[in-house]
Specification:
It is a single chain. This protein is mainly alpha-helical. Helices cover about 60% and strands about 0% of the residues. The chain has 22 helices and no strands. The longest helix has 27 residues, at about 75-100. The termini are far apart.
Length: about 500
Amino acid sequence: MAGDGNDAAEPEAPAPPAAEPAAKSAKPDDAESPVEEAIAAVEPEPPAPSPRAASIAEKKRQIAKFAGHWARVRWVQLVIAVALAFGHLGAFARAGHSRLNIPFDLAPGAHLQFTDLRAGALSGFPRQPPKWSRLVVSRMDAQHYIGTALRGLYACPKDPNKANGNAYLACGLGWLPGYGVVGSAAMKLTGLEPDFALVLVSTVCAIILNLLWICPMMVRRMGLLGAYGVLLAWNCYPGAMYLVTPLVEAMVMALTIGGFVMLSKQRWVASAFLIGASTALRLPTVDAGFALGCCLLFATWQQYKAHKPQWWRPLIAIPLCGWGQFLTMLVFQIKLGNWHAYFDARWNFGDKNRVHRFFELTYFLQGFKAQNADMIMYIALVAITLLTWRRALAGFTSIERMFIIISSVITFILAIAAPIEYWGITRYMMLGMLPFLGMGVLAKRHRGLFVMWLVLSLGIYWNFELCNYVTQGDPAACPCAGRNEMHLPWAS
């Protein structure tokens, strides 16, 4: 029985051998080998820095500390964000004067309205509404968003049995109406004309986006210099000029990056709401919606394995990842009786799957002489991604890395497969975060390359992208432009 005194005691285990003295058993960590001692005896010690050099180094540290302090102050960040956004407006004003010899506003005081509410969106010149292109920032697709802000879906056929893709394209449905609806709301709130209202919305979104690039979360992930490097490279990027136009880019990117910031804070519903809203503005934003859905599933699995309470909460946000697009289709079904009216219009406009281009070397080679040098930018972004992706992602969590990688890979694919020709690749690539995060790495570790990239970006910004947009592809006004893909009269 337990505790019985008659039980035999177990033999004790033999004691381990005594440890040798530390001096004999282990070599001190700082001991030098005979070779190292010989080298140290031959090589002279490095000279101490001169008082002048030490003073310069101390001044540099003080300047860096001073700049780092002010770079984190929110009102300073706001001033920088506003200055960068207005810098794009200034570039437009300068381009209008130098390329076309026109002012920023060609018809001050003009009241924009349709003379025919059923006028075709793509028929004839000048197009409706008259004076839609009076602002130097209003070109190309701006006409359709201004038109939607003024007439909504009024001109669209209500009987799906009598409608076709051309009819939907003519009423402006080749461009999602969500941004025009926002412009209409801004008109009512501010009393501005539709073109000014949309420029105001875009400029505000561009400022918000600039602040998001240097928000505390991005500074923690990228470092202060890296975050500001991303901000500077983003605003020098040729496609950044679209951020202050009556186009969707600024709002789409503000919603996407804002959703990413919410994702980093594990605010699942807020993240899905923002990113889902972007799908009502531009169809390629499905890359961010799909990436977010994958992240929410992964976050659910992580929390389930960790036995966290309410591990299922990320699943609630999944239906919101594409709510903007689903709401748009619901409105089309209710008002037009055809939920796929937008897709019918785009099909007639020329949209189709062009993934085969990835297997056609001639497409890439010919792209180097495209009108806006889009293929040059695409290949450069691929190179930056391959050079920097490990370091760019190093500071992010696994869920954040998943979002960045998935959305960026899809963007790289869509940028080649989606455009009818080449013009548009540069704009598509703005939806991919990874190459732009890589530019922050260049700012920290490869400053020579970073400066070269800024010079290349600004050169293409001014001589290609901005010039062709302001002149609507006029080769006579843009001598640096490549092979002409599109040239439309700009005056209305």
